[in-house]
Design a protein that fits this description.
Elements (H helix, E strand, L loop, with lengths): L1 E5 L2 E10 L2 E6 L18 H21 L3 H28 L24 H40 L1
Antiparallel strand pairs: 1-2, 2-3
């Protein structure tokens, strides 16, 4: 604990040092808080583009959900691997290249780039939950395809008998 004079008032300040970060706790902590530079309060070009993409994907999913079972199984059997691969890649990238001391020690150095916005816990949590959900749908759909092929085989066997 150290004593610091701030605006004529003596204040105690506690500083704990952790690799890569410095946490400051004390009476004047709010004066050191960084201001938020990016918020979702005001619409921007990027948020409008993301909204259009999400609306398009949602509309295509609702359309695919309203078709017959045989067509839906063929549609989703082609969509699921692509979505799983993409979401697994995004989640893995977010986890492996996140900023912080727990990133494999010194094995992977953090470099700044255009995808820095993806390297946060919100994107990782969303990606992890999506991968889990889509993998669950994949296993359920695989069972449905197996049951459909068994029914088709029984129909063919009854036709031939």
């Amino acid at each position: 604990m150290t004593r610091v004079r701030r605006k004529g008032v003596e204040v105690e300040k506690i500083v704990q040092e952790i690799p890569y970060f410095e946490y400051k706790v004390g009476a004047y902590e709010s004066s050191f808080a960084p201001s938020a530079s990016c918020t979702l309060d005001a619409p921007s070009d990027a948020t409008a583009f993301v909204a259009i993409i999400l609306a398009f994907l949602g509309l295509s999913d609702f359309t695919a959900a309203s078709i017959r079972d045989e067509l839906a199984l063929s549609y989703w059997s082609s969509q699921l691997p692509v979505r799983l691969f993409f979401l697994f890649f995004v989640t893995g990238y977010t986890y492996l290249f996140k900023r912080g001391p727990e990133t494999f020690g010194e094995a992977i150095k953090h470099t700044s780039g255009p995808a820095d916005g993806l390297k946060n816990s919100l994107v990782f949590t969303w990606g992890f939950m999506e991968v889990t959900t889509w993998f669950w749908i994949y296993t359920s759909m695989r069972d449905e395809i197996r049951q459909l092929s068994n029914r088709q085989a029984e129909k063919d066997r009854d036709k031939n008998a």
